[in-house]
Amino acid sequence: MTTKTLNPSFVDRFHIPFLGYGIGLRRKHFDAVLHALPKEPSHWNRDKTFFSGNSPAPKDNHSTGLCDRVDWMEIVSENYMGFGGRPMFVLDRCAEHMPILPHGVNLSIGSPDPLCTDYLTKLKSLCDKIHAPFWSDHCCYSSAGNVYFHDLLPLPFSEEAARHVARRAKQAMDYVERPLALENISYYAKMPYSSMQEAEFLTAVLEDADCGLLLDINNVYVNCQNHGEDPNLFLDSIPLSRVVQVHLAGHRDEGWLRIDDHGSAVSAPVWALYAELVRRIGPITTVVEWDNQIPELSVLIQQAEIARETAKAAHTTQSAGEQR
Amino acid sequence: MNHLDLFFQTMRAFLVGQIPIDTVESQLGPSSSGSRRFAFYRTLVRNDHHGFMEKLYGFTQDVLQDHFSGCVSRYLTAHPPDHWEPNQTGARFPEWLRHDSEAILIAPWIGDLAQYEWFEFVVYTDPTPDNPVESGLSLNSTMRALKFEFDVPGWITSGRPLAEPNPGPARRDLILLMYRDSRTLQCKFLEATPWTQLIVTSLENGDDPLRVATAAGADAETATQAILELTRVGLLHNTSS
Ligand SMILES: [Fe+2]
Fold it and tell me: For residue A3, what pLDDT is reported?
């Protein structure tokens, strides 16, 4: 298998934009989001924002307007694929005012079953509708033998599995006609037949398929805690030039296991690891995920603002260090 | 069989609850993370599947209480989720419930209740844009006409799902028209009368409802009033000036 690349970054080759700091759009917040959107259509130029590498405008922390405080939104693709009604109405209103990125949970890129063309067709039409510059899903399987488990399940970390995933990732990208970013999942048990470390497996998949990496910093932290590994070494071992986006989220500690439940604020060690990442690669499109015990919209916005401040501070430190 | 095929075949059986973790470990070898963590994946998948069912079928769960989880487990064994859209996990639940002896013993009307909940979701997310025709009368394209054997809609409207003790809805055959209001985008319903059924059917067949209603014996005033009322509640669109 191939190893870590030194080629021009994935971000440059595919003109992946820096979108700034965002939040996930969740049904619970539909009313609050509609209320906080500007009454008039925004003047952001979709093509310019996405493809010229422009950075988002500075934000106003005291404003009650959503667009003054977050730069973009992430949606769970499956919540909008083939759906109309209120979900699509809210998505359309949001897309009038800010960039939207689709993040899927059921591509099941590692599955033994053929890729689902109904899924890919609906996904492509969603990506077209929202002008997504890329799309993302997880490096895992969530179905097998025509059963959908609706969970992000770890594959064996083996060359055989990596080749299998990479082959399917190329097919999926061809179908959707956009770059794909695969996310590192949280895994609680290393599967039988694993002959590699997670970072090696992930690198093999990304390099072989020529995919972007959606780096979930909470997952890195949770996995390293659960498996007794060093998160900095993990960052050393993956192709950081392929990172197109970052996920941040909360987790809970059950004693015997840390669970990636997206049910609380981002923890201090995860913020620290995020700062370390920004010191290494600079500011990166970031979203805070929150899927259980979802708080008020304002709490999510505050988390995105902490991400912005953390990245700004880390980037300043890094730049100062480089100048010395 | 190669390693990956054997892995998926074994994990599939384990994740749907057909084989225990010991059998997985004897077929694939152990996880270096230990049995407890390996086995945890069955719990996660089960919780995910049950979670979708709980979100879709809140009233049904309230009625079946402690029996709901067992019902869902039996249903998922009969119909393992086979669709990428998670809510489709519950698509066949109403029909399945009608034949589950344990559930109908608790509430004979449980299938009707689940049908109501399922179609609330279906109508709410219906992908058709519900655009009125350019000129004249048209039917709200999100409408579903559903048969009920119990007055579940009346029972829900009166807030009785949460009542204690709970006698349940009265036995009564009815046809319910469920649709999404184009203005509020919320699901609404209307019990069909013979006249509304006639108007709806005539529009579905591309006929003039006023002509069909009067031919069936309605006076023009009654038929016009019925059409106006259906337009007022958003089941019909009238774009004629
Ligand atoms: Fe994530």
Answer: 40
Assess if CATH 3.30.70.360 describes domain A8-323: no
Cα dihedral A117→A121→A123→A126 (10° resolution): -170
Q: Phi and psi of A186, rounded to 5°?
A: -85, 135
A107-149 pLDDT, tens per residue?
A: 999 999 999 999 999 999 999 999 999 999 999 999 999 999 9
Coil, helix or strand for A53?
coil
Phi, psi of B43, rounded to the nearest 5 degrees: -60, -45
Of B72, B83, B92, B7, residue with least CA distance to B41: B7
**How many A from CA of B219 to the centre of ligand 1?**
63
Contact partners, residue A17, CB within 8 Å, separation at least 6: A49, A50, A51, A52, A53, A54, A99, A133, A285
d(CA A190, CA A154): 8
- Number of residues assigned to chain A: 324
**Bridge partners of residue B237, in order along the sequence:** B138
B34 dihedral zone (left: phi>0; alpha: psi -120 to 50; beta): left
Q: What is the largest CA-CA distance in chain B?
A: 80
Alpha-carbon gap, residue A92 to A228, rounded angstroms: 44
Question: pLDDT tens-digit profile of A33-63?
Answer: 999 998 876 656 655 455 434 556 667 666 7
Listed by start position, the domains of chain B span: 1-125, 130-241
Sign of CA dihedral A58, A64, A65, A67: positive
- CB of B48 less than 8 A from some CB of A: yes
CA A215 to ligand 1 centroid distance, Å:
8
Residues of A with Cβ-Cβ distance to B120 under 8 angstroms: none
What is the pLDDT at residue A39? 84
Strand-pair partners of A214: A183, A245
pLDDT tens across A56-87, in order?
Answer: 666 766 677 898 899 999 999 999 999 999 99
Tokens at A65, concatenated = 């307007």
pLDDT > 60? residue A5: no
Residue of A nearest to B84 (CA): A106
pLDDT at A4: 42
- Output the CATH code of domain B130-241: 3.90.930.50
Selected residue of A188, A195, A252, A259 to mutate for chain B interface (largest B Cβ count, 10 A): A188
Element (H, E) at A181: strand A180-183
pLDDT band at A186 (very low <50, low <70, confident <90, very high): very high
* Residue A189 DSSP code: S
Task: Say if CB A275 and CB A314 are below 8 A apart.
Answer: yes
Q: Is the pTM of this model over 0.90?
A: yes
Whether the predicted interface score ipTM is above 0.85: yes
